[in-house]
Amino acid sequence: MNLFTDRKIITVSQLTALVREVLEDNFEHLWVEGEISNLATPSSGHIYFTLKDSGATVRCVMFKSSVRAMKFRMNDGMKILLKARMTVYDQRGDYQLVAEYAEPLGLGALQLAFQQTRDKLAKEGIFDAAHKKTIPALPTTVGIVTSPTGAAIHDILNVIGRRYANLQILIAPTRVQGEGAAAEIAAAISDLNRYARVDVIIVARGGGSIEDLWAFNEEIVARAIYASRLPIISAVGHEVDLTISDLVADLRAPTPSAAAELVVSSKAQMLADCNSLERRLSQSILRHFSDLSSSLEILKLSLKDPGIIIERLMQRLDELNARTEYALTDLLQKYKQRAGIAESSLKLNSPDKRIRELTGRIENLSIRSIAAIRSKLEFTSSSLSTASGRLDALSPLSILHRGYAAVTMKQTGKTVREVTALKPGDAVDVRFLDGIAECEVKSIHCNMPL
């Protein structure tokens, strides 16, 4: 069919389908470079953006399957190179590029992804020294996260076996490169943290390209290392290789062999250090005893005959006795003089007259006090007799004396004031003046006149 010579009427959908067919058949594999703008990342996981240069723009889409394989994150203003195919989006009638692969212009995709992950984690403080844990000096069990068939595990085992063969080793085997390796490494770190006897973990891999080491740059591995309760030594690649795991780990070793040397001291070196400390301690003790012996000899030389010291002390005692006797005699003499002066003064100012006056006053006060006390006692005795008469009149015993009795319940001891408080069979106590009668109620009769 010739659309340009034959008058054939087609629909918009048919036209769009024809255009899409032409574009997809002729532009199946394209490499296009440009600058990203209008970037959108909906929850579906697809990415929508516009690729532009100074003269034109084209809409682009990268579907979720391709996004997963991309190592870096796109941003507005980033210049990229796309591998894409051209198609038409029917609903708008616009042609668009379906991107299958992307890499940034300038820096490589992996290098850019490394920088983006590093900057993100650094802002969260995951690399801060305050979060670093101390590597134990003498671990009993070392956990190792690495490939069970790689060179790294052989290097580590050789070094540990040479330096301290008694050390226990627990290997968590994982893949160390390729799809899914990062998730396995993170899971292995988590598993070792649940094993109570592990003291420290080595995360290791031999050398390789940045692609080979990429699993150790994944964010999932970095967060697993950061969340570990156990200290972790990162030993990935060679000394010139730097990974995100190295930055977040508690200690970085340039190689797996160096990690083994850092985690465990040489047994021979430890024994040599112990022997050296033992020698130094022995020498220190011997020097201390020697110093004590010298001090003792000096004290012996400075110590004199005890007899001479006692004689000097006795002489000193005699001297002090003499001085004391003289001082006491002098003091007694002074007191005698002061007593004589006081006696003369008393004779001149005799207190006999004053004593007689005070004696008379005392006798007068004594007579008056005795009279007042007698009067008070008589008044008190009279009041007491009056109160006693009143108490006798109100006393229950007085009532009993007149021939009455008091009735109380046998069990409770409560006084029975009314016959209605009793019932046949109740046990009661009847108190008379001279004793108590235990009774039992046979019957009750109310309101009987006396």
Features:
450 residues, alpha/beta, OB fold (Dihydrolipoamide Acetyltransferase, E2P), Rossmann fold, 4 domains, 5-stranded parallel β-sheet, 12 helices, 13 strands
CATH superfamily of the largest domain: Succinyl-CoA synthetase domains
Poorly predicted regions:
none
**Rounded radius of gyration (Å):** 58 Å
Largest sheet: 5 strands, mixed, barrel
The separation of the N and C termini measures: 147 Å
| Helix/strand/pairing category | alpha/beta
Question: Could you explain how this protein is built, in words?
Answer:
The protein is of the alpha/beta class and 450 residues long. It has helices at 12-26, 64-69, 109-123, 151-163, 181-193, 219-227, 244-248, 256-263, 267-302, 306-348, 352-394, 396-401, and strands at 30-40, 47-52, 57-62, 79-89, 94-104, 141-146, 168-173, 200-205, 232-236, 251-252, 406-409, 427-432, 435-440. The protein has 4 domains: 12-106, OB fold (Dihydrolipoamide Acetyltransferase, E2P); 115-129 and 136-264, Rossmann fold (3-Layer(aba) Sandwich), CATH 3.40.50; 266-299; 391-450, no CATH class. The chain is flat. The protein has a 5-stranded mixed barrel. The protein contains 12 helices and 13 strands. The protein is 47% helix and 19% strand.
Describe the secondary structure blueprint for this structure.
Layout: H1 12-26, E1 30-40, E2 47-52, E3 57-62, H2 64-69, E4 79-89, E5 94-104, H3 109-123, E6 141-146, H4 151-163, E7 168-173, H5 181-193, E8 200-205, H6 219-227, E9 232-236, H7 244-248, E10 251-252, H8 256-263, H9 267-302, H10 306-348, H11 352-394, H12 396-401, E11 406-409, E12 427-432, E13 435-440
Parallel strand pairs: 3-5, 6-7, 6-8, 8-9, 9-10
Antiparallel strand pairs: 1-2, 1-4, 2-3, 4-5, 11-12, 12-13
